[in-house]
Specification:
Layout lengths: L8 H9 L7 E2 L5 H4 L3 E2 L12 H13 L33 H10 L14 H8 L4 H17 L4
Antiparallel strand pairs: 1-2
Helix pairs in contact: 3-6, 4-6, 5-6
């Protein structure tokens, strides 16, 4: 048995049970039966640079939302509800980017299917575990992710 202490618990929880959007896909393409066996693997949240919204997006969001934010990432087809096309957030909000709403969804989770589902991780919870409840760093991560998503908006 490996020794651990109370500070190890967040890491153990992450390793044991958290589904992250940056999960790798195990895709069988040899036959229709194999295609039904597609699985989104569970993986621990990896540390990333909290000052880089782009780096965090690539690590945490692109697997589902796609590299350009269109909802076409490699894991998208395995979700019950298609990921939101992040490039249309401002357009779908009367031309104004809903920064506060996106911040809240990332921090606390989504309540309505149009804004994500419970398949989307609650990143605030994951970031608090990753950053040992350093709320300043958690807010920095979420704010920088929101700012990066803002750059993805279609003209």
């Amino acid at each position: 048995m490996l020794p651990f202490n109370a500070s190890s618990l967040p890491k153990l929880r992450l390793l044991g049970s958290l589904l992250v959007a940056s999960a790798l896909l195990a895709i069988g393409t040899a036959s229709p039966a194999a295609a039904q066996d597609k699985v989104i693997k569970k993986a621990p949240v990896q540390q990333s640079d909290p000052t880089s919204g782009k780096a965090m997006y690539t690590s945490y969001c692109a697997a589902c939302h796609g590299p350009a934010g269109k909802g076409d990432g490699p894991a998208a087809s395995e979700l019950k509800v298609a990921p939101v096309d992040l490039t249309q957030l401002a357009k779908n909000n009367g031309g104004k980017f809903p920064a506060d709403h996106i911040h809240a969804v990332l921090d606390f989770g989504a309540k309505a299917p149009a804004h994500g589902t419970n398949e989307m991780p609650v990143w605030g919870t994951l970031f608090r575990a990753l950053d040992q409840n350093d709320q300043v760093k958690v807010n920095l991560r979420i704010s920088n992710l929101v700012e990066y998503v803002k750059t993805l908006q279609a003209n």
